[in-house]
Amino acid sequence: MLGDNVYGAIGPADVQAKFEAPYKALLDAGVGFHAVLGNHDNPNQRFYELFNMGGERYYTFRASEAGFRN
How far is CA 60 from CA 35, 47, 53, 68, in A? Predict the structure, then answer.
């Protein structure tokens, strides 16, 4: 995800409505998301488990033969 992931309030109900519900089919299929925080995102979103940021603002991960750096 390229940033500005959840606009406005980020309480549990907000994240459910703005992320989990729209991407439910993908989440249910086991698709993993890797987020980057944009200028409209709350920095605390790095702790949201489904964004796979490990609590870090900047991180690196490998998927198959490709490497990604945030």
Answer: 11, 16, 9, 6
